[in-house]
Amino acid sequence: MVPAGSRVLDVGCGDGALLELLVRDRGVAGRGIELSQEGVNQCVARGLSVVQGDADKDLTYYPDQAFDFVILSQTIQATQRPSAVLEQLLRIGRRAIVSFPNFGHWRARIDIGLRGRMPVTEHLPVSWYDTPNIHFCTIRDFVALCDHLEVTVERKLALNAHGKRLKLGPKAHLANLFGEQAVFLLRR
Amino acid sequence: MQPIRTNHAAAKQDCSFARFGEGRSLELQCGQSIASPVIAYKTYGTLNAEKSNAVLVCHALTGDQYAASSHPVTGKPGWWSLMVGPGRPIDTTRYFVICANVIGSCMGSTGPMSINPETGRAYGIDLPVITVPDMVRAQAMLLDVLGIPDLFCVTGGSMGGMQALQWAASYPERVFSAIPIATAARHTSQNIAFHEVGRQAVMADRDWMGGRYMDNDMRPLKGLAVARMAAHVTYLSDEALHNKFGRHLQDRNAPTYGFDADFQVESYLRHQGSTFVDRFDANSYLYLTRAMDYFDLAADYGGILANAFRDTSARFCIVSFTSDWLFPTEENRLIVHALNAVAADVSFVELETTGGHDSFLLDVPELFVTIDGFLRSAAEMRGI
User: Does B55 lie in the same domain as B42?
Assistant: First the structure.
């Protein structure tokens, strides 16, 4: 999705693994913002341009359209205000790539629907009282949010547990059932 | 009263000097100028053929050019020998490191102790008041003399960090990367207040003699020592002082009910004060604390800090320390926000330490790993 030479901001970049991949292998001009100081320090020690910051508060400091791509990888469900964050992403970037664990996956539905328990799966591995994920959503929820915010979905992918793309045709509710994770390419 | 020789003037200076001759002067922000300025400096390492590996290390308030070599007066190791040296993060086997004594200081560069060519005696407080931009302008003159078109990196802590920021703002085309550590884009009123306490201590000392003490072979030792004691407390942290001294008594089992140095911390501070006056000039203390107080990068750019960095394509690494309450993380964060606002290439780390503002001088492994990583990546981009 990200061509070489693009300006990229990875929001919630963790220890910098993805950013490093993009910078080293794809020749991307990459920057990062990460909440955990430990993560930031690891990134900077790897030679990546990363600042400590909070996706909910600190995206306002970036100028409009400063980046070709803003990536929010497996982070939107941990933000305080996902809708505001999404709007900021699309202000500071021409395009946004958002990935998240899909709460609508059949395993999660069985846990809730039949067992009556909050799902603990491979991609949602932490108990409800320990998880940093406070805003779960399903693929269909996310599509609805994009609609509501008048955000254009350029591409959407459902991935299985191993990150492999699922070929499910255009039917969103199949993706919602079988996709463990989703990746969306968005623009205003 | 015993006349006292000024130790630091008599000490053998193991460094180089750039002497700007007749007709050359340093233009100052205050509108005046300093004729025929002298800049004392040390270099470590070798400049490469492309002249692309120069690193300028900027010292702090009471620092000097001996970043990685013994101090000629105290004999102590260089103030940043943990950071600068062979195999250290600022690797002198890879980079050409320059450290210059700032204008207004007292280790060989033109300052209040220098002879005023117009009067034949020391400037004293007749020297025009210098600012951080003036220090940087002098450093740029030095680089011109050394034939260095631009810097691979400019770095420093505290007042040195201010200089690094000023470099990026004043000479955007001459800075490839900047590492301002434990610093701020302006001195806060609390910072100014502490400095004022120090200056008043110096000026209240009878031996200061209106700044002309050198004419009488005197020095305001007591005043300068008190100034240093007060400043030193601001460089530490409550936790560090508690861990180091607590309420322990110095070489005694019970308080003496007097005003001797009963507590270990008192003894420590008195020692800090008395060793300081051996190596630093009182008038320089006035000038350099003033320069820090006047520093306000945003003010020179219409009050908006981001504007100072609009023209720079430098990579920045901002570093702050959790226990630094003199230049707290929040002040460093303001710099980061300003850099983000112009989409600059910036890294920002806050390191967990107990050493207070002094942390940038101490053995903090995470600091070295961070700077090392940043510089390696920058060197790769630079092709060195």
Answer: yes
- In this structure, is residue A83 part of a structural domain? yes
Quote the pLDDT of residue A173: 76
**Neighbouring C-beta atoms of residue B2, cutoff 10 Å:** 5
When scoring A44, A48, A88, A92 by the number of chain B Cβ atoms within 10 A, the one with the most, hence best to mutate, is A44
Determine whether the interchain pair B366/A41 forms a contact, defined as Cβ–Cβ distance below 8 Å. Answer: yes
Q: CB distance B376–A61 less than 8 Å?
A: no
Is the domain of B261 the same as that of B314? no
Cα four-point dihedral sign A85, A88, A93, A95: positive
pLDDT tens digits for range B169-190: 999 999 999 999 999 999 999 9
pLDDT digits (tens, 9 = 90+) for B68-79: 999 998 899 999
Active site residue B158: yes
Helices (H) and strands (E) in chain B, counts: 11, 12
Task: Give the separation between CA A101 and CA B64, rounded to whole angstroms.
Answer: 55
Distances (CA, A) of B375 to A51, B98, B177: 16, 16, 8
Q: How many domains does chain A have?
A: 1
Number of domains in chain B: 2
- Counting one residue from A and one from B, how many pairs have CB atoms under 8 Å apart? 66
SS3 for A102-163, per residue?
Answer: CCCCHHHHHHHHHHCCCCCCCCCCCCCCCCCCCCCCCHHHHHHHHHHCCCEEEEEEEECCCC
ipTM of the complex in this document: 0.84
In B14-111, DSSP assigns E strands to 16-19, 25-27, 33-35, 38-44, 54-58, 84-85, 90-91, 96-100
From B264, B288, B312, the end of a domain falls on B288
Asked if B336's CB is within 8 angstroms of A51's CB, the reply is yes
A8 CB within 8 Å of a chain B CB: no
**Burial label, B306 (beta-carbon count in 10 A; 0-12, 13-18, 19+):** middle
Could you say which DSSP state residue B43 is in?
E
